[in-house]
Recover the amino acids of this structure.
């Protein structure tokens, strides 16, 4: 069932989003304690891979569409689908008004297109019905926690997508997009206890240096994702080549090459599969 947007969001009253309590970033009200492993990890990845290309932020609606479509889909394929949509439709309003079957065919290259097409269409229709036009620019007026809670009211939108919208778009807010790649690296480094993507983001935000702004968090995510796709892969991590191997308990176990570490690795892979499946839902 599609999420119901707060009725207070409308063209005549854009300044109110009621009925929502912002989620506490630090639920126990304790002060975050920066973990020195995060800056060191960032430094090592930056030295190994170089600085990622600077992002040219999209408007929030475009980022929302991309993030909804790109989940569990290779980045290159997701960008190709976005280019196709922009070539096929003159505006996002035209995409919204396209027949569902046509929309599904247009995004057919993404994973689970048959699920994402109705979710995307419903979201675009709901935004228009409540706000009066198809835009998310009005979100710039609200606190980050409130924006994310509101976005997560849409079917298929979880912490990963809401973080991407507020961090990667022109909103440029502090948030950390923890996808399956980021989650895997975090768990292998034992930076936080094993948990789903949303809980892991909350825990990471508690230990990330306070001076890391939105752009720095974006760069950190990009480096971790690149590392996960290059060396810290799911099935065959190349631990011997990893720049983080001296700080990685998982890598030390793998390089130890004992029967016990191999058994632990098998159990850990099963756990990774279960957590990745959970992350896919958001």
């Amino acid at each position: 069932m599609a999420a119901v947007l707060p009725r207070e969001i409308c063209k005549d009253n854009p300044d109110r989003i009621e009925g929502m309590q912002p989620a506490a970033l630090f639920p126990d009200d304790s002060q975050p304690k920066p973990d020195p492993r995060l800056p060191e990890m960032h430094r090592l990845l930056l030295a190994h891979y170089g600085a990622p290309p600077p992002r040219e932020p999209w408007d929030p609606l475009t980022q929302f569409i991309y993030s909804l479509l790109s989940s569990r889909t290779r980045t290159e394929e997701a960008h190709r689908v976005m280019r196709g949509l922009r070539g096929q439709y003159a505006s996002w309003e035209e995409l919204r008004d396209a027949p569902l079957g046509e929309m599904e065919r247009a995004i057919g290259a993404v994973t689970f297109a048959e699920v994402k097409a109705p979710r995307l269409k419903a979201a675009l229709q709901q935004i228009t019905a409540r706000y009066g036009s198809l835009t998310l620019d009005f979100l710039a007026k609200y606190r980050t926690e409130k924006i994310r809670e509101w976005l997560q009211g849409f079917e298929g939108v979880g912490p990963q997508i809401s973080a991407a919208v507020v961090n990667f778009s022109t909103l440029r807010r502090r948030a950390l997009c923890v996808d399956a790649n980021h989650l895997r690296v975090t768990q292998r480094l034992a930076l936080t206890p094993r948990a789903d993507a949303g809980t892991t983001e909350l825990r990471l935000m508690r230990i990330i240096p306070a001076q890391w702004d939105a752009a720095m968090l974006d760069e950190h995510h990009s480096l971790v994702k690149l590392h996960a796709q290059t060396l810290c892969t799911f099935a065959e991590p190349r631990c011997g080549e990893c720049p983080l191997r001296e700080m990685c308990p998982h890598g030390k176990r793998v390089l130890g090459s004992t029967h016990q570490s191999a058994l632990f690795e098998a159990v850990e892979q099963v756990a990774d599969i279960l957590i990745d499946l959970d992350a896919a839902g958001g």
In short: Residues 259-280 form the longest helix (22 residues).
